[in-house]
Amino acid sequence: MPTEGDLGPQLSVRLTYLLKRAQLGLDGLHEELLGPLGVNHRELAVLLLLDAREPESQQQVAGRLGVDRTTMVALIDGLEGKGLVARRPDAADRRRNVIALTGAGRKTLRRATRASDEAEGRLLDGLDEVEAAQLRALLGRIARPGEQR
C-alpha cells in the first residue's frame, strides 16, 4: 500500500482515497475469510437481507440493495446453484416468485456472518470500541442522508 509520503498531502486526506483504501482492505479480508465458505461479500449481503425479511421478489431484493436487475439475477442464480436460496411461488400471488433462504443458506449465513465480523474487526483493529462505534455511526449517517440526524 502506498504511504502518505508517496501520495502527497493533498491526496492522502481526500475522502475518496481514504474510503476506497478502506473498502479495498475490507474486500481483501472478506475474500480471505468468506472464500472458504463459498460466498463473497455481495452474496452475504443478499443472505443477510433475506434473513431479516419475509421472502421477497428478486426485484424487491435488488431495489433494497441498490443492485441492477442483471446483477441480481446473477447473484440469485449463483446462490441458488449453491443451494443457499430457493425461488418459490409467492403464497399471496402465485404468478410471482419470491426468494427464500434454504436450511443450508441459514447455516452458511451464520458462519459467513461470523467470518464477516472477524474481517470487520481486523479492519478496525487500530480503533478502540468507542472509535469503531463512532465510525459506524458516522458512516451510517452519510450512507442514509435522508434519515434523521
TrEMBL record:
Q: Which domain of life is it from?
A: Bacteria
State the Pfam families in the record.
MarR
Q: Which protein are we looking at?
A: Transcriptional regulator MarR family
SUPFAM superfamilies noted in UniProt: Winged helix' DNA-binding domain (SSF46785)
Pinpoint the HTH marR-type domain residues.
12-144
GO terms (molecular function) for this protein are: DNA-binding transcription factor activity
Q: Name one GO biological process term.
A: response to stress
Query: What is the phylogenetic placement of the source species in the record?
Result: Bacteria, Bacillati, Actinomycetota, Thermoleophilia, Solirubrobacterales
